[in-house]
Prior knowledge:
single chain; globular; Rossmann fold; alpha/beta; disordered C terminus
Amino acid sequence: MKIIAVANQKGGVGKTTTSMNLSVCLAELGKKVLLVDLDPQANASSGLGVDTETGVSAYLPMLGEMPLADCIMPTAYENLWIIPANLDLAGVEVELIRAGDHLTRLRRAFEPVRLAAPVDYVILDCPPSLGVLMTNALSAADEILVPLQCEYYSLEGLAKIIGVCEQLREAGANPDLQLCGILMTMYLRTNHANQVIAEIQKHYGDVIFKTVIPRTIRLAEAPSHGQPIVKYETSGLGAAAYRSVAKEFLAREAALVPETAAP
């Protein structure tokens, strides 16, 4: 089981859209996936048509008052489960900030789940901030995937999130955290967007996904209908892009697995 945090402290970059659609596309490819909504706004939950009024979230597990596994719920999609979010998660910032282990509460909550390994991948949809919820997600994750809008302001935000990962490694909160990749989102065929992509490639090279996510009206509409883009417009540009990202993601993960020595 591998835990992937989809994170960027900047809002409106396609983070939740990526979390939802990557999860559904991986499930389509036969992988067992758990999507964990860590944003109190619960957009990933409602975007999959999940009831956010059930009171179920990662809030109590992070306080040590409930097993995380008890919060896992089925979705309408085969091979995909979810731990939804609700406004209670906003209280985690206040309740944990004075705790000495406030950075690693989610990591500890995941320990029994890792041992049981009920899924292949866990996708953590992080809130757009550098608060307790995001740092807990980064401390619990094996890898971080950074969605990045195709504009120059994104370059500054990328440096910040990578800096936070370095701090967590150096502090010992998660010394093994790796950068899974940078996914360029909201792409329009303009010189500006192409220049931004070229600049990112110059600094990060193969870390960038070859697939870029286009800016489309359908991608923006899909969450309001409680559906991922691959169901809302299954043959559209957005769906094709996220299916391509899922395949590229699995190819990258396969490349990380060391070959078994021949007997």
